[in-house]
Design brief:
single chain, 2 strands, 125 residues, 61% helix, two-stranded antiparallel ribbon, Four Helix Bundle (Hemerythrin (Met), subunit A), mainly alpha
Amino acid sequence: MRYLAPDEVLLIHERILDKFGGAGGLRDWGLLDSAVNRPRAAFEGKDLYPDLFTKAAALGHSLALNHPFVDGNKRTAWEAMHTFIEENGYSLQAEHEEIVELMLRIEDKSLGVEQIAEWLKNHSR
């Protein structure tokens, strides 16, 4: 499994701001590091997120809700999940409106990691 590093997510964030605009800046490196490493979490030697889609969901959930950046947290969360899934051999296929709805539902906490993982799995090939 290929995991993203905090520096890679920071670059994703910078590219998003370059393309779409927004206030730049990292609010908290610790929150970014925590979000990026959440997919690797284990307890007593057992992965808390046992498959690619739950790992991607944990990454996106943490980035969207931890707000490590001044601006663009949801956009970065989406692009990080997308990149993570593609780096591990799948392709995400979703309409822009579906993506917006997903990210808003993550932000308002109406979706947890399991529901996000299911959505990602259903939209992957």
